[in-house]
Amino acid sequence: MSLSAHDKELIGKVWTKISPKAAQIGGDALGRLIVVFPQTKIYFSHFADLSPSSPQIKAHGAKVLGAIGEAVSGIDNVSASLSKLSELHAYNLRVDPVNFKLLAHTLLVSLSATLGAEFTPEIHLAWDKFLAIVAAVLSEKYR
Amino acid sequence: MVHWTDAEREAINTFWAKIDHEEVGHQALTRVLVVYPWTQRYFSTFGNLSNATAIAGNPKVRAHGKRVLDALGDAITHLDNVNATYAKLSQLHSEKLHVDPENFRLLGETLIIVLAGHFGAAFTPAIQATWQKFLAVVIAALSKQYH
Question: What is the ipTM of this complex?
């Protein structure tokens, strides 16, 4: 699976549009993750507040979206753009890769909630592919 | 038997009442066919599915989307016995249609995304969780008669 020129264009356009709200969208996506898939809370057991309105959850969500933004900037080589994060997840965090799919889903939900009809099927497709690539890159050094 | 809290029943029924079956069904099925193009294998009699525009404009896709949402309505009316309600549908999908149950999951995820698009922030994390639970029950019921 790879991104076509058209996919990259759509991904870039959406990013430009949402980047002023990236922190909020990230916080929303992570908040949805811990509510819809409560087992994911184990990775945040050091957070005092594990509700979706938790400032720690919102801050961490913002961080995640920031990293996604870096992947968008370096979309022609996501592996290189996210190399450090890839190592972090492999050797330190060791988040089970199944969770990347869960977060990709809640991120698509947040994007859809934010963009409404502008989140067209083609844009949905491009972002679904892109997030799958990000997930693959994050787990590529696991073994 | 699945246990539903009052809040869950409320979340399901309240949102269901606001959903336009045809429109939401159409959008969900269109998205599945665009985002996961291999699912088109189940709709070879539907005519033109060659690109996103063709799929969105295809009257058979629209009609089938509505049919799927109407069937979801049956499950909502029988929340306390979805398995029995879907026994025949499950058999149909297994023995006649030969649909890989993975597709139920894809449609479920897509429907959640469509609902989020329609309701925005009103589709809160808690309401999303309830709807994902409901769709998991639907998917289990649809997969139950497979052998």
Answer: 0.93
| CB contact (8 A) between residue B113 and residue A124 | yes
Residue of A46, A44, A15 lying closest to A103 (CA atoms): A44
Cross-chain Cβ contact B128/A36 below 8 Å = yes
Instruction: Please give the angle made by the CA atoms of B119, A9 and A101, to the nearest 5 degrees.
Output: 55
Does A125 touch chain B if contact means CB atoms closer than 8 Å?
A: yes
Interchain CB distance below 8 Å, B117 and A32: no
Query: What is the reported pTM?
Result: 0.95
Cα–Cα dist B50/B55, whole Å: 7
By Cβ distance, the residue of B30, B56, B117 closest to A117 is B117
Reading chain A (143 residues) residue by residue, the pLDDT tens digits are: 899 999 999 999 999 999 999 999 999 999 999 999 999 999 999 999 999 999 999 999 999 999 999 999 999 999 999 999 999 999 999 999 999 999 999 999 999 999 999 999 999 999 999 999 999 999 999 99
